[in-house]
Amino acid sequence: MNKQKIIEELQAGNQEGLTFIYQRYAGEFIGFVSKKYRIDRDQARDFYIESIIEFRRNVVNGKLLELKSSLKTYLFTIGRNQILNYLRDNKLTYVEEMKDNLNHSDTSHQIVMEKEERMKAVQIIFQQLPENCYKLLKLFYFDHMNTKQIQIQMNYQNEQTVRTRKYKCSQKLKQLFVEQNVMDY
């Protein structure tokens, strides 16, 4: 079933395309986001279902009449945005999740030690960033400021400059992680 056929079927009230979509991309989506965003498979499945529901809602409400990208790309983008919003809204970060994991009594001593070492390495690498990158990423990820707030706080020319700098700083951070073998990307 092609993407345009699925859209037409949904517009006509036929829901069979949703089953096709679920079965077609579920495994790949769940595997990808559970690894990339460090969420459990049940949460990943919930986000996938929400992505399908959002896709259907966009079709039925007339917001989506034709897909310019692949159906997979569209669904994965919806899912990624939902996950990022969830993480931001719930102030969940990798660091906070690690702290929570350290508090579980069923973790072995060795695992706890490895996580503590990784946490220290993350903090050290984060501090190796240039001062302006460190401050920008801290404001965005830890202080949860939006681009407008960061623009004002750091006296940038506009929000696009903030987004560009954030991207470049994130790339620097990622490069440091890779170079020092702290995380797999």
Give a short overview:
With 185 residues, this protein is mainly alpha-helical. The chain contains nine helices and no strands.
Q: Which descriptors apply to this entry?
A:
75% helix; 185 residues; mainly alpha; 0% strand; 2 domains; Rna Polymerase Sigma Factor, Chain: A; Arc Repressor Mutant, subunit A; single chain
H-E string:
HHHHHHHHH
Distance between the termini: 33 Å
Given the helix and strand composition, which structural class is it? mainly alpha
Q: How large is the count of helical segments?
A: 9
Helix content: over 70%
Strand content: under 5%
CATH topology of the largest domain: Rna Polymerase Sigma Factor, Chain: A
Level-1 CATH class name of the largest domain: Mainly Alpha
Mean pLDDT figure:
81
CATH architecture of the largest domain: Orthogonal Bundle
Shape label: globular
Radius of gyration using CA atoms only: 20 Å
- Tell how many strands the DSSP assignment holds: 0
The major β-sheet equals: none
Domain unit count:
2
Unreliable segments (pLDDT under 50, ≥5 consecutive)?
A: none
Describe this structure in words.
This protein has 185 residues and is mainly alpha-helical. The protein folds into two domains: 3-89, Rna Polymerase Sigma Factor, Chain: A; 94-179, Arc Repressor Mutant, subunit A (Orthogonal Bundle), CATH 1.10.10. It is 75% helix and 0% strand. It has nine helices and no strands. It has helices at residues 3-11, 16-36, 41-60, 71-89, 94-103, 109-127, 131-142, 147-154, 159-179. Helix 5 (94-103) runs antiparallel to helix 6 and helix 8 crosses helix 9. The longest helix has 21 residues, at 16-36. The radius of gyration is 20 Å and the shape is globular. The two termini are 33 Å apart. The mean pLDDT is 81.
